[in-house]
């Protein structure tokens, strides 16, 4: 079968013929239809410092996907050939304290699909049945392909109650924009998003943010005044990993405000902890999705009319992966999709 492979320990990706995956005990074999390109895939393609530590070649990339079930191992129940499915890309041990307590998203032995084992940038992929999410209600294949990052957005946005609250989101990448759409849909009063990319700020406006702030030319304080906020933001969603973004967020929270942190910084940086303490601000780290409460929430949000179509801005046949990756790396885009049926 065809697959996108990190074949060598150097920058680049290769479209190669590789053996079809063999169905193992408790696993499901899936014919891949669409895949989404993630920032992680860009790091692996560039073979930066993180990728050199995290991956071993050869490796089939990809963890954002949708496909149709082809076969299931003996004993697998609840999943049948023909089912339309996405996959939870965090494979957990099932035996540690957190897994046994139902907190699988906190497993310390997590293995990443397309990072620690061959992934979904291929014509076929296998996954443990416990990692397969069956779409019981029809979902657009492009949207189903990005359930993984959509889950990051939902997990972050729904970490704290949003009804009637004023929300500040720093970072208008695809996940930040999806989080803005979720916050709006979930009943936030005002949703303000910040970035330095005019393209992505315009994209955020399409999902209904109250205000999109280009922090190169304007400040969050001006945004607060424009919206008539007297006491600051109730909820913050930090999606950028940028030190200046988190410091600005902390400075503009109301007393008792709550911040969910998804953005990964490239290095350590100082934060005004005195402000966090004296304003009694809650900081909560977010990683991945809650298995499977977040997945239920995602499906219900879409059934309830949440529209993610503005976030998807690029679609390519998998043979044109170089152009697709270049667009995704360029920053003037939302989510970029590869079509594996072409």
UniProtKB/TrEMBL annotation:
Catalytic activity: 2-deoxy-scyllo-inosamine + NADP(+) = 3-amino-2,3-dideoxy-scyllo-inosose + NADPH + H(+); L-threonine + NAD(+) = (2S)-2-amino-3-oxobutanoate + NADH + H(+); 2-deoxy-scyllo-inosamine + NAD(+) = 3-amino-2,3-dideoxy-scyllo-inosose + NADH + H(+)
Pathway assigned to this chain's UniProt record: Metabolic intermediate biosynthesis; 2-deoxystreptamine biosynthesis; 2-deoxystreptamine from D-glucose 6-phosphate: step 3/4; Amino-acid degradation; L-threonine degradation via oxydo-reductase pathway; glycine from L-threonine: step 1/2
Entry binding sites for NAD(+): 175, 195, 200, 262-264, 286-287
Transcription regulation keyword on record: no
Assigned protein family: Belongs to the zinc-containing alcohol dehydrogenase family. DOIA dehydrogenase subfamily.
Subunit composition and interactions: Homotetramer.
Protein name in the entry: L-threonine 3-dehydrogenase
């Amino acid at each position: 079968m065809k697959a996108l492979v990190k074949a060598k320990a150097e920058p680049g990706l290769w479209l190669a013929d590789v053996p079809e995956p063999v169905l193992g005990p408790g696993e499901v074999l899936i014919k891949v239809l669409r895949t989404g390109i993630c920032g992680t895939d860009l790091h692996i393609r560039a073979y930066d410092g993180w990728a050199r530590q995290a991956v071993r070649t050869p490796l089939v990339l990809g963890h954002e996907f949708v496909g149709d079930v082809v076969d299931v191992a003996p004993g697998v129940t609840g999943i049948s050939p023909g089912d339309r499915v996405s996959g939870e890309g965090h494979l957990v041990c099932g035996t540690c304290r957190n897994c046994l307590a139902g907190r699988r998203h906190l497993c310390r032995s997590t293995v990443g699909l397309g990072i620690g084992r061959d992934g979904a940038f291929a014509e076929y992929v296998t996954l443990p049945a416990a990692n397969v999410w069956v779409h019981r209600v029809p979902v657009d294949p492009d949207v189903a392909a990005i359930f993984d990052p959509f889950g990051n957005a939902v997990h972050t946005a729904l970490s704290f109650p949003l009804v009637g609250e004023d929300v500040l989101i720093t970072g208008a990448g695809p996940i930040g924009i999806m989080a803005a759409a979720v916050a709006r849909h979930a009943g936030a009063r005002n949703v303000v998003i910040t970035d330095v990319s005019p393209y992505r700020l315009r994209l955020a406006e399409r999902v209904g943010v109250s205000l999109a702030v280009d922090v190169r030319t304007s400040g969050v304080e001006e945004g607060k005044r424009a919206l008539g906020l007297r006491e600051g933001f109730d909820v913050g969603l930090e999606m950028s990993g940028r030190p200046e973004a988190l410091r600005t967020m902390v400075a503009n929270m109301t007393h008792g405000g709550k911040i969910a942190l998804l953005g990964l910084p490239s290095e350590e940086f100082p934060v005004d902890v005195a402000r966090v303490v004296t304003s009694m601000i809650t900081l909560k780290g977010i990683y991945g999705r809650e298995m499977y409460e977040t997945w239920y929430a995602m499906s219900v949000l879409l059934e309830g009319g949440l529209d993610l179509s503005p976030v998807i801005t690029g679609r390519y046949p998998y043979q044109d992966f170089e152009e697709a990756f270049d667009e995704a790396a360029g920053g003037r885009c939302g989510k970029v999709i590869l079509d594996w049926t072409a």
